[in-house]
Design a protein that fits this description.
By secondary structure, this protein is an alpha/beta fold. The protein is 39% helix and 17% strand. Strand 4, helix 4 and strand 5 form a beta-alpha-beta unit.
């Protein structure tokens, strides 16, 4: 049985990854600071799906607190899946310090823990946001990522560079995963799927930015989890041992089409209010997954036509909508 440290274990992807690790027989040490950035009750509800498992241990801790995180060095951890971060492009315009603390200081603390533990593999979350407003699509891992559109994107790119340095200096096998617009059951309430579903269910208007000319590579959470576990089991053998992959659905969907599938699943029409582009946002994302398919065997299997009904089933049950 491997002992895996998962940061952000109360988060959307972190809880889903933890459930998958437990299901395959691993022991999971979860860390989360239960930040009030969004509904803490949802985070606690996710944890309740994990806490009954005998192989799950939880630490309520902040990844940027090096003294607390340092105490985990003697717990027999063999690998780290570092998913904790301050998310959100728009909020980075309001509180930049939250991003520097969580995404840069926190990331460095976790790298130092990986160094102290001499772990077999350090897997971490990056973001499709690092591609900024690149006009070439689909986005490939070899594309330029030196023109971020937001501070959030800049911190995620900095994480990749920090990790490259650690892999070079200390020969720590590391893999970064650039996630593309993840949705599904237990999703974040600050993201479009839940915001839209709540508004449609309540008969309230929804804002559609860039006057509807928005495309996203919507990726169902189970496909993301599969990619994370595939990456975990395949540490890079390069020199230095650091690899970066895209995890997306390899299909860019128009936002209004995504809303249309939500309407079908909910049985209600959306009241769409067209709005201009938001600062820091990008008009389109689309993942080139050739590298992750070749190296990891990653092949997403859930189109939005199948993923949205599953998301709506959970949404109706959790929110009693």
């Amino acid at each position: 049985m491997a002992k895996i440290l998962v940061t952000g274990a109360a988060g959307f992807i972190g809880a889903a990854v933890s459930r998958a690790l437990l299901a395959r027989g691993d022991h999971v040490i979860g860390v989360d600071n239960l930040s009030p950035y969004y509904d803490v009750a949802l985070k606690q509800a996710r944890l309740q799906t994990l806490s009954p498992h005998k192989d799950f241990t939880f630490h309520h801790a902040d990844i940027a607190d090096k003294s607390v995180i340092g105490t985990l060095a003697g717990t027999g951890i063999s690998a780290i899946i570092h998913l904790a971060a301050q998310p959100g492009v728009r909020y980075s315009l309001e509180d930049p310090f939250a991003y520097v603390t969580a995404n840069m200081m926190g990331h460095t603390v976790m790298l130092e823990l990986a160094r102290a533990l001499k772990i077999a593999h350090f897997v971490y979350a990056s973001s499709s946001s690092v591609y900024g407003a690149n006009k070439k699509t689909p986005f490939a891992v070899g594309d330029a990522v030196d023109h971020p559109n937001s501070l959030y994107a800049a911190t995620k790119r900095a994480d990749e560079l920090f990790t490259q340095a650690y892999a070079h200096l200390y020969v720590i096998p590391c893999t970064g995963l650039r996630f593309f617009t993840v949705y599904g059951p237990w999703g974040r309430p600050d993201m479009a799927p839940i915001l839209f579903a709540k508004a449609i269910a309540a008969g309230e208007p929804i804002k559609v930015f860039n006057h509807g000319e928005m495309w996203r590579d919507f990726t169902y959470v189970d496909d993301i989890v599969d990619g994370v576990l595939r990456a975990l089991d395949r540490p890079p053998a390069s020199s230095p041992p650091h690899a970066v992959y895209n995890l997306g659905n390899n299909k860019s969907e128009k936002l209004t089409d995504f809303i249309g599938d939500l309407e079908k699943a909910l049985g209600k029409k959306a009241q769409m209010v067209m709005a201009p582009m938001q600062p820091g946002d990008v008009p389109a994302t689309w993942a080139d997954i050739d590298a992750s398919t070749a190296a990891l065997g990653y092949k997403p299997t859930t189109p939005i036509s199948a993923g949205i009904p599953k998301f709506v089933d959970w949404f109706r049950d959790y929110y009693r909508a």
